[in-house]
Amino acid sequence: SQKIEQNSEALNIQEGKTATLTCNYTNYSPAYLQWYRQDPGRGPVFLLLIRENEKEKRKERLKVTFDTTLKQSLFHITASQPADSATYLCALERWGFKTIFGAGTRLFVKA
Amino acid sequence: TAGITQAPTSQILAAGRSMTLRCTQDMRHNAMYWYRQDLGLGLRLIHYSNTAGTTGKGEVPDGYSVSRANTDDFPLTLASAVPSQTSVYFCASSEGTGGADTQYFGPGTRLTVL
Predict the structure, then answer these.
(1) pLDDT in tens, B25-45
(2) Structurally, how many domains does chain A consist of?
(3) Does residue B104 belong to any structural domain of this protein?
(4) Does A2 touch chain B (CB under 8 A)?
(5) Beta carbons within 8 Å of B104's beta carbon, 6+ residues apart
(6) Is some CB atom of chain B closer than 8 A to the CB atom of A103?
(7) CB contact under 8 A, B100 and A32
(8) Closest-CA distance of chain A to residue B87, Å
């Protein structure tokens, strides 16, 4: 079955630096790979989606890459701010299967 | 726009009792989902509904039931709660028209079964 691996250890970075989060998966390549943000006590909020035939997607300070050979997606936040502190989840979707979510990586941005 | 609302926000329930978690969306989305989120395990799908009148089982359906009588509402029922059902429950919806299935989540219900 499909598995998603996200770094369970929290990522601590200094304000202004680039945060890079990793999402690795096994088995089949998804048709879509999504990234969500979750704040404590809240539901996840959609951020970005990348298709299997796309290498990179950007939205403001966010960038997602997708390497189907490595079975990996990287999520970058440039010029990070303390307000970016949250848990970030990746999710995989493939036609005929329900979306699968990773456990998430906690990001702390220090001022 | 309210999006998705869930009730109650939190609940403490005695083992063996039944309870219904409510979920309502105002986006006219076809698909709706129930997840539970436990520390270190991420979101796990309990049940889903692709459209009103249909439901399906997710990864962890045992001990839970759902119904989808109309587009807007998707209640989750625990017939006889057990302590292992202590979790945070999220309802979500998506357009469900094919293509990318971006999901919109409610604020969650924190359930403690004692």
Answers:
(1) 999 999 999 999 998 888 999
(2) 1
(3) no
(4) no
(5) A46, B3, B4, B25, B27, B29, B92, B93, B94
(6) yes
(7) yes
(8) 12
Structural domain range at position A54? 4-110
| pLDDT at residue A95, as a whole number | 72
Q: Which residue of B has its CA nearest to A30?
A: B100
Determine the residue of chain B that is closest to A102 in CA distance.
B42
**Residue B46 C-alpha, separation from nearest chain A C-alpha, in angstroms:** 11
Per-10-residue mean pLDDT, chain A, length 111: 85 97 88 94 95 93 94 96 97 82 95 94
Domain span at residue B77? 4-96
Average pLDDT, chain B: 94
Residues 6+ apart with CB under 8 A from B103: A44, A46, A91, A99, B33, B92, B93, B94
Total residues found in chain B within this entry: 114
The pLDDT value given to residue B24: 98
Among candidate residues A98, A95, A90, A81, the one with its CA nearest the CA of residue A22: A90
User: How many domains would you assign to chain B?
Assistant: 1
A43–B108: do the CB atoms touch at under 8 Å? yes
Q: Are B72 and B94 in contact (CB under 8 A)?
A: no
pLDDT tens digits for range B59-85: 999 999 999 999 999 999 999 999 999
B1 pLDDT above the threshold of 70:
no
